[in-house]
Predict the 3D structure of the following.
Amino acid sequence: MHLFEHLVIFKFNDRITSEKEQELLAQLLAFKGAIPGIVDVSAGINVTEETDNIHGYSLGLRVTFEDKEALRAYGPNPIHQAFVQQLGGLLENVVVVDYPIA
């Protein structure tokens, strides 16, 4: 059984406010302890100095799951779905990467 890493990078449109972005960040950080199968959560606002590589992506998320089944169960989880609903009309693009870690 392998742990699974779930990486998400969010690019918001011009309707996002800094207050809303902070609210979304707080919701992401609250996933740990609230959604079964999550081992660790890290999330934050992008403060990279590599400004040529930002491409408008301003919020990053890393979730470590206990296994692939926990990752699969996360998608339809009501807490996750409530977060997804908050993104309506704000999201321009998103990048997702999932991979097993030994």
